[in-house]
Design a protein that fits this description.
Distance between the termini: 39 Å
Strand content: 15-25%
Number of strands: 5
Oligomer: single chain
Radius of gyration: 22 Å
Strand order of the largest sheet: 1-5-4-3-2
Structural class: alpha+beta
Number of helices: 5
Length: about 200
């Protein structure tokens, strides 16, 4: 992830996250809402044209037309499957198991992010929710990567997505996976340290 912006203004939070916390903790994903309509509409259009092409294939009379239509269908199916997979991944949170309850996990996330020298934003109505935001990506000043951390009992949830993605289906970056692995290693290190102290 690129460096985090240093300004102290509160970021814009995505779709009243505090209202959806119970759903996220139960299902490990964002709720399907009107914000998902553009991406869903794109996938529906691809599915429609793919289905239409398949139907036209069966109506084709020449073998050459059949082969060409099947090739087009195959390409559309690949595009559709890739789009669905990319879109679905952006909705899901990675779950990191911990031995701690929510209050301790809140402190754990705070300590971890500060150790990474990242600016931290806290949800005003939900202290268990943390957010970090990247600097603008490329020439698009509105496009930034957003990472969400949610502290819960016995686990921490991590998600990554991009802003300003209305009619495109963004690929989830590898930063969420990398950060989740670093956080898991942090938790393991804490447990080993605690075990060593308790044995002494």
């Amino acid at each position: 992830m690129k460096s985090i912006s240093g300004n102290s203004n509160d970021p814009k939070w995505e779709s009243n996250l505090s209202d959806d916390l119970v759903f996220i903790k139960q299902h490990l994903r964002y709720r399907i809402s009107k914000k998902t309509v553009p991406a869903t509409a794109i996938l529906a259009m691809i599915l429609f044209f793919a289905s239409r092409t398949i139907w036209m294939t069966f109506l084709a009379s020449k073998m050459q037309d059949v082969v060409m239509s099947l090739f087009v269908v195959l390409m559309m199916c690949i595009v559709l499957a890739t789009g669905i997979r990319r879109y679905w991944r952006t909705l899901w949170f990675r779950k990191i198991e911990t031995p701690y309850y929510a209050a301790d996990n809140i402190k754990l996330i705070d300590d971890f992010l500060r150790s990474q020298q990242l600016n931290i934003y806290r949800h005003p109505q939900a202290p268990e929710v943390f957010q970090i935001i990247s600097m603008p990506i490329g020439k698009n000043a509105a496009k930034r990567e957003v990472m969400i951390f949610i502290a819960d009992d016995k686990c921490i949830l991590v998600n990554s997505h991009f802003t300003n993605q209305k009619w495109t289906i963004p690929a989830q970056s590898n930063n969420a996976a990398r950060m989740a692995k670093q956080l898991e290693a942090w938790v393991v290190g804490l447990r080993q340290t605690s075990s060593g102290v308790s044995r002494q």
